[in-house]
Amino acid sequence: MAHINLLPWREEAEKAKQREFFTTLTAIALGAFAVVFLVSQVYQLRIDGQNNRNQYLKNEIAVLDARISQIKTLNEKKNELQKRTAVVEQLQRSRNVGTQVLDEIAKVVPTGIYLVKMEKQGSSLQLIGKSESNNHLANMIRKIESSDLFTDAVLESITANDAQSKLLSDFKMRVRIKGLTDAAITQGASK
Description:
Layout: H1 7-93, H2 97-108, E1 113-121, E2 124-131, H3 134-145, E3 150-160, E4 169-177, H4 182-190
Antiparallel strand pairs: 1-2, 2-4, 3-4
C-alpha cells in the first residue's frame, strides 16, 4: 500500500474548525456585547428621562415654595393690617367717649347723689362721691346696668363720715365702659 500522509489534511481540517470556532465565538461575543450595550443604552435613556422629570419636578417645587413664602408674607401682612384696622375702629368708636360718658353720667346719676371725682383708667371709670341714702345708690346701679354705655357696676365702699353731716355717706364705685378694651387703648396711645 502506498503511504499517504493524511496529517496535513487533518491539521488543515482542525485549523479550519478552530477558525470557525473562534469566528463563532467572536460573533457570539460581539452579539452579546451589542445586546448588553443596547440594553444599557435603553436603561440609560430611561434613567435620563426620569432624571429630567425629577429635575422638572424640583424646579416646579421651587416655584411653588417661592409662592408659598409669598403667601405666608401676605398672610402676615394681612393679619397685621387687620390688627391695625381693629385698633383704628376701636379708636374711632372711642373717639367721643368722653362726651358720651359725661352725657350718660348725667342720665344715670339720680338726685341725692353728688359726684366728687371721676377717674378713667383704661376701659373702667371710677366714681367717687356722696350719697344721701343707699337707695339712691341702688337706683344708680340699676340705671348703670340698663345703660347702653356702662356695665359691670361694682360698689367698692360706702362709708359714713361722722365729722361731716350724718346725712351724706361717701362711696366709691367702679364701672366698665362697654366697647372699650384696655389693650386697644394702650396700643392706640403708643402709635
